[in-house]
Backbone:
């Protein structure tokens, strides 16, 4: 069990979300923003087929399978 969203992680997640929005990408779920940001920060592989994570993989190096 990992704490996914403290104050620092929330700020980092929102900055990533805003960068994607400026690039014209809309992530449809707030929880997807938190999950993607957590996995990127901690270097975790995310097992998903959800297309909302495509932009995080391309722009921020989210590892997914």
Residues:
């Amino acid at each position: 069990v990992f704490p996914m969203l403290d104050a620092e992680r929330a700020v980092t997640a929102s900055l990533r979300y805003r960068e994607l929005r400026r690039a014209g990408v809309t992530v449809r779920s707030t929880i997807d923003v938190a999950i993607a940001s957590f996995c990127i920060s901690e270097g975790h592989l995310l097992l998903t087929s959800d297309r909302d994570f495509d932009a995080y993989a391309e722009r921020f190096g989210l590892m997914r399978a």
